[in-house]
Amino acid sequence: MTHALFAELDLAGDRRAADIDKLHQGTAFYTAVPEIEALLDRLDWPNTGSRLLDPGAGNGGFVVSALARLNLAANDVATAATRVRGYEIHPGAATAARVNVRQHLTGRGWSLPAAIEAANQIIQTKDFLLSPVPVGVFDVIAANPPYWRLLSHLPPDSPYRLDYEAIVPAHARADLLFAYLQRAMDIAAPAARMGLVTADRWLINSGSAELRERIGRVYSVLDIQRLDASSAFYRPKARTKGTPARVHPVSLILTPSAAGRPLTAAPFRIEQLPDVDGVPLRDLAQIRLAPWLGPEGIFYVRDRGDLPAARLVPCVEPEDIDPATDTIKGYSRWALKTDSARPEDCVVAHIEAGLDAMPKRGRRTPVWLPPERFDGKLPLDRDAVLIPRIAKRLRPILLPAGVMPINHNLVCLAGVDAPELMRMLNDPAVQEQADVLAVRLDGGYRSYTATLLRQLVIPRALAVRAISARS
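The chain above was modelled as a monomer; its predicted structure follows.
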């Protein structure tokens, strides 16, 4: 398909047009043809379904691929325009889509007037979210809905935002993706199937729980596959050329039956968890998030000065860990250990001198208590295991006795001998579970939280060994 150039809007003095243009520039990615074709294969188009809609047509990629699969007689405008439809809010993008449809049809031997007429009927310049659209007509929806937090990017008084907030239901407003999914469900024919290339966030984030629950009343997930963001899209607008989309895309089929996996308010696990016979890690080990101590220089310091040595505990953050060896390189900061009893005057004076820099949420009474206490809560008297919260894999790292992890960047595990903990966490079945449960971040990184660790199931043989070593 030829990638036609975009005509831009005349923005002079037209705030709504400016809003739409900003929306267009922000919804950055178009799906590569191989991914479109694979999705249409899984939808079994056109063998299954009679009328297909792309509600955010962009430059017409889905529409052209859908038309290419139809056995159309030359110049049969009525059939082409009945079977396939695309809506596009941005006039320039809609023009590009019509050019691509026209070129496809003339390439199949259509006359130019018939191809132009069909393209004009198939691609409509229409706001799928806010304009009237036919309800109960389309039995296949195939789309890459836009991903954009509109309320974060348009000012409260912008014309488009005001209309958006007045029409889009509250549970679907946070992202255009959410709004498109809800609207697609609302207007689809009763037996319609949906094939979607979307960011994975609506499936896993807590903010889209109600959306999932509502969609799940009608649809189940018949099939879902992760895509590679670096190859699934082309022509990123308003991004550095060649950079991958900052989304973690999936291609999925929704079916209006119970044939697939259910959608509920709970986060949807895209990859299935391996079936492991064993014991939950939460039953074997204490799992604690490293305490937040506020800004550097109050409850943790680089310069120990005249502070009592007995009050100072060496502490570690992710930058203190050697990524090549997964060992702690050394210590350059010390945490100030206090409890309910008033410490030495010099300690109180040090803390009071820095309190102006402490956020309100971190201030405690009495003033010598840190934002989050760690005295008696972390295993400072024995070796433990650290897990960096942001990493490319689950990384168990030995934490020597007497060393303090700080500032929510690390999770600390104790209660089982450290070598046994390391062995359990490095087990392939445990690593696989962690990969499934971890939220994907940019650059191949994932988020490993205390909540995630508590869900891990340790293979029974390893769990028995750890319990025996603890005894």
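Confidence is low (pLDDT under 50) at residues 2-12, 236-244.
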